Amino acid sequence: MPYQSADPAAAGAITARGWTLVLLSVACAFAVLSLSPPRVFGGVLLVIPAALFTAIPLVTLHAMSSSGARNLFRGYSLGAFGQSIMFGIATLTASLSVALILLPFAPLEANRAGDVLTNADALAVVIFLVRTFIQLVGEEVVTILPLLAVVRFSMATTGIGRRGGLAAGVVVSTLLFSAMHLPTYNWNVVQCFVVIGTARLVLTASYLRTGNLWVSSGAHIMNDWSIFAVGYAGSHLPIGA
Questions:
Q1: What is the pLDDT of residues 125-169, one digit of tens each?
Q2: How many distinct helices (H) and strands (E) make up the chain?
Q3: Which residues cross the membrane (predicted)?
Q4: Domain assignment present for 184
Q5: Would residue 68 count as lying in a domain?
Q6: Contact 153, 16 (CB under 8 A)
Q7: How many percent of the chain have pLDDT more than 70?
Q8: How many other CB atoms are there within 10 angstroms of residue 15's CB atom?
Q9: In a domain, 239, yes or no
Q10: What is the DSSP string of 118-142?
Q11: Residue 236 — very low, low, confident or very high, per pLDDT cuts 50/70/90?
Q12: What is the pLDDT of residues 214-227, one digit of tens each?
């Protein structure tokens, strides 16, 4: 059934106190990722902040409901992979379309995350791919968990019903996701809340449609890696070839 996963039960039976702790763990995870000293976490160690960013909310979720992570991450079959491809293309298309519309009116910042690939050797590329894979899964976790929490609190306290709670959850989680990207895009508010927000809506739709965080994670990874691949190719193609 479409959108069945928007029920907070998708993360297991969690009390209001449990959801509060899950939300605190999301904030803690983002703080760890944002504040990790770059001089300390270099080379292979770059994977550590990304791993903590992803693990902290999932460990907290497991502590609040042992079935939580299993309900969020379902099997990843060939069909699920195809869904990731479909939603990955849709995410890239939607965000690029909005960016092209905005470009004549507002300056847009490049994603500098892939700059490390400019002069990277094979090991650095592998580390980059592993780190971003883990981090992008984490970004799905820290976006969908607040969505489910808002659905739960809305249904329990406001009486707006499941559809109203879902709408509130999508709005809040999209704003949070967009805000998380402000440092990445040099605090470009329009870009983060319009372009990145549009991409987020497609990624959220992929989770709500499938109930499988692997599908939205796969779509997210394909979207971002496509952007990084274009930048990498541009910096490595021989001039005049």
A1: 899 999 999 999 999 999 999 999 999 999 888 878 888 999 999
A2: 9, 0
A3: 12-34, 40-64, 85-106, 126-151, 163-182
A4: yes
A5: yes
A6: yes
A7: 88
A8: 11
A9: no
A10: TT--HHHHHHHHHHHHHHHHHHHHH
A11: low
A12: 999 999 999 999 98
